[in-house]
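can u do me a favor
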C-alpha cells in the first residue's frame, strides 16, 4: 500500500505495534498493556490527522495509487457487465470503459475513466486521459442506453482529456463540446460520480448529469492545482496554495451547488474499505435512477436544463477587482 507523506507517522506506529506483537508472541511475553496503549495512541493520531486534512492532502488521497478505479467499482457494484468498444470512427480508447450492466434489479449503461495499476497498464490506459475517440465512444453508448431507456451511470476519474497533438488533430475539443451539447438532450436519467480526480474538460465531457455525486476526498476542478500554480505564481510548488484557493473539495462543491451529494469515505480514503464505499454508492445511484425514471422526458430535460442554468449564480453587488498593473521606469509592466 502506498504511503503519503502526512501518513508516515501512522504507518510507523502501526509497524511498531506489529513488531511488538510479534516479539511478544515469539518470546512468549505478555505485552498486551503496552500494545493497548500504543493502539490507543494510534487511534488518536489517526483522528487528529484525518480530521484536519488540508485541501492539498485530500487531493493526494484522491490520487492515491491504491484507490479503487472504475472497473473496480463495476466489479463491486454490478453483475453481468458486458463491455462495449469503439467509437465507430477511429478506434477504441482504453482510457474510457463502458458497457451494459445490472445493479441489483436495475439495468444500466455504465461507463467511466480507467487508470492503470502499473506502468504497462498506465501506458495502455493513457493514465486515464481519454482521447477524442473515448468521448465519442461514451456518447455513442449513452445514445444506445437512452434508446433502451436505461439509466446512464458515469464514473469520473481523470486528470483531464489527453492534450497531445494527435488528439487535437482528431478533434478533441469538438468531441467534448459535442458531448456537452448532446448529453443535455438525453431522454433518460444520467447519474455521474466523481470517484477520484475530476479534471477540467476531461471530466466535464462526460459530466452533464441529472445528479452529480462525489466521493468525500475526490475533487472536481476547471484546472489542476499544479496548473493553476504555474499560471498564477509561475511555480508548481505553490500547488497546495492553489488547491486551497480553488475550493475544489467535496464540501465546497456541495455548498456551491456543483454536486448534489457527497458519498462519505472511511478514515484515510476509499482504498481502506472499497466494498463499503461501493455499496453506499450503489445504493445512492439506484435511488436517484428510480426517482428520476418517474419523470416524463420533458420534465427530465427541463430539470436538467434548470440545474445547469443555476450554476454560477450569485447575489450581491461585490466587484472583484482585476490585478493592478504598474509600470516601472523602463516602461515594462508588472501584474
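np, heres the sequence
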Amino acid at each position: 500500500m502506498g504511503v503519503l507523506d502526512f501518513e508516515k507517522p501512522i504507518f510507523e506506529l502501526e509497524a511498531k505495534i506489529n513488531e511488538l506483537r510479534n516479539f511478544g508472541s515469539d518470546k512468549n511475553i505478555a505485552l498486551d498493556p503496552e500494545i493497548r496503549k500504543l493502539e490507543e495512541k494510534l487511534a488518536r493520531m489517526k483522528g487528529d490527522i484525518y480530521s484536519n486534512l488540508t485541501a492539498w492532502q485530500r487531493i493526494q488521497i484522491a490520487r492515491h495509487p491504491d484507490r479503487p478505479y472504475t472497473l473496480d467499482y463495476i466489479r463491486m457494484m454490478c453483475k453481468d457487465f458486458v463491455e462495449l468498444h469503439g467509437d465507430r470512427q477511429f478506434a477504441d480508447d482504453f482510457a474510457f470503459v463502458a458497457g451494459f450492466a445490472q445493479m441489483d434489479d436495475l439495468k444500466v449503461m455504465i461507463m467511466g475513466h480507467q487508470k492503470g495499476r502499473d506502468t504497462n497498464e498506465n501506458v495502455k490506459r493513457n493514465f486515464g486521459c481519454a482521447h477524442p475517440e473515448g468521448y465519442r465512444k461514451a456518447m455513442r453508448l449513452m445514445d444506445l442506453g437512452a434508446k433502451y431507456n436505461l439509466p446512464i451511470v458515469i464514473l469520473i476519474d481523470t486528470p483531464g482529456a489527453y492534450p497531445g497533438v494527435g488528439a487535437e488533430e482528431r478533434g478533441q475539443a469538438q468531441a467534448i463540446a459535442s458531448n456537452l451539447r448532446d448529453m443535455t438532450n438525453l431522454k433518460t436519467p444520467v447519474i455521474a460520480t466523481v470517484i477520484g480526480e475530476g479534471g477540467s474538460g476531461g471530466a466535464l465531457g462526460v459530466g452533464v448529469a441529472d445528479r452529480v455525486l462525489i466521493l468525500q476526498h475526490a475533487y472536481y476542478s476547471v484546472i489542476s492545482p499544479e496548473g493553476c500554480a504555474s499560471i498564477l505564481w509561475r511555480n508548481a510548488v505553490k500547488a497546495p496554495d492553489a488547491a486551497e484557493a480553488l475550493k475544489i473539495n467535496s464540501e465546497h462543491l456541495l455548498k456551491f451547488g456543483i454536486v448534489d451529494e457527497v458519498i462519505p469515505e472511511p478514515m484515510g480514503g476509499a482504498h481502506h474499505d472499497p466494498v463499503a464505499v461501493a455499496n453506499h454508492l450503489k445504493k445512492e445511484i439506484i435511488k436517484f435512477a428510480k426517482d428520476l425514471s418517474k419523470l416524463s422526458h420533458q420534465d427530465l430535460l427541463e430539470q436538467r436544463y434548470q440545474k445547469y442554468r443555476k450554476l454560477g449564480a450569485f447575489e450581491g453587488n461585490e466587484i472583484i477587482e482585476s490585478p493592478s498593473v504598474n509600470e516601472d521606469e523602463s516602461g515594462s509592466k508588472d501584474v
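Residues 8-27 form the longest helix (20 residues). hope that helps!!
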